[in-house]
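Minutes, project huddle
Topic: does the predicted pose make sense with 1,3-dihydroxyacetonephosphate bound?
PN asked that the exact inputs be recorded in the minutes so nobody has to dig through chat later. Recorded below.
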Amino acid sequence: MGKYVIAGNWKMNKPPAEAKALSEDIKPLGAGAACDVVLGVPFVDLQTALDATAGTKIGVAAQNCHWAASGAFTGEISAPMLKAMGVGYVIIGHSERRQYFGETDETVNKRVRAALDNGLTVILCVGEYLEQREQGITEEVVALQTKVALCGVSAEEMSRVIIAYEPVWAIGTGRTATAAQANEVCAAIRNVVKGLYNADVATALTVQYGGSMNAGNAAELLAQSDVDGGLIGGASLKAPDFATIVAAAK
Ligand code: 13P
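Predicted holo structure (tokens), as shared on screen:
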């Protein structure tokens, strides 16, 4: 459907020297990849990753941004700051930020707006908890997260939005959604976007799957009709594994 995008989410891993080594190991992937490749690195590694991947088509993502442009927000980083550095992408609404840092659908929406207003491409994360899946409300949950996050986002701006479906119970647990489960929810998200905008926007949208995607299961997940890429945590910290996943995205 949408263009394939494989993004690593390094989370809170890799101090600058290790980030440099890993970025350089990943750099050759930029040349041959049939998909877009993005590295989502800690704030302190952004410059390192930008330098290491300069001149390649590998993109660099921050893992969050604040909604204000500047001001008294100790410890925060704004979208204009990221843009000024040359960062192209920002991951917003990751379940770890929602779980541990009090982010809500409303603050996710404000961050999405700020990122888009500043020319960044957003990787918007949505996904259900295990209890919600067991209650049979997965599609309602991700539909609500998607609708609130995209409040005030125009059809034109949707060309700079990627949605990552990340079931919370599959993150860092080694328990992957089955390919059918992943495809079902990615298709449901695309359908929500079709309802909000139109069929063209929905068809062009990149919907990633994330949650224990690895070198062994990536090919099957990525072969699904509505899965257009992956947001990869643990396996993105090992260059050979990440390379296998990138190679599977075609
Ligand atoms: P894991 O691949 O480590 O399960 O993490 C997925 C994730 O949260 C990516 O954002």
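Observations noted during the meeting:
- The chain has one domain: 5-248.
- Residues 5 and 245 are 11 Å apart (CA to CA).
No decisions taken; revisit at the next huddle.
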